[in-house]
Specification:
By secondary structure, the chain is of the alpha+beta class. Helices cover 23% and strands 33% of the residues. The protein starts with a strand and ends with a strand.
Length: 86
Amino acid sequence: MKKIGCQISGYSVTFDQAKIVAATIAEQDNDFATLVSWCDRDKGVHSPCCLKCEFDGEPGWEVYGRNHEGRLRISFDDDRFVFIYS
């Protein structure tokens, strides 16, 4: 999986703003990019919500994204927001 890190300084980006930027990046090479999983650490929420929260030390939502054709992991501000796209 390709990993992209975005650092934003001088402005506090919101989850919705980060999601728009992530979608733009993901669709650059793939018109059919699909958001497979995501995490918003500010709110403490993620998708999919799994009963088992960790697998071998990794969050369940991230393992899910990787195992469901995740090809691109886009992180904002050191994993404050993370989006995994197929």
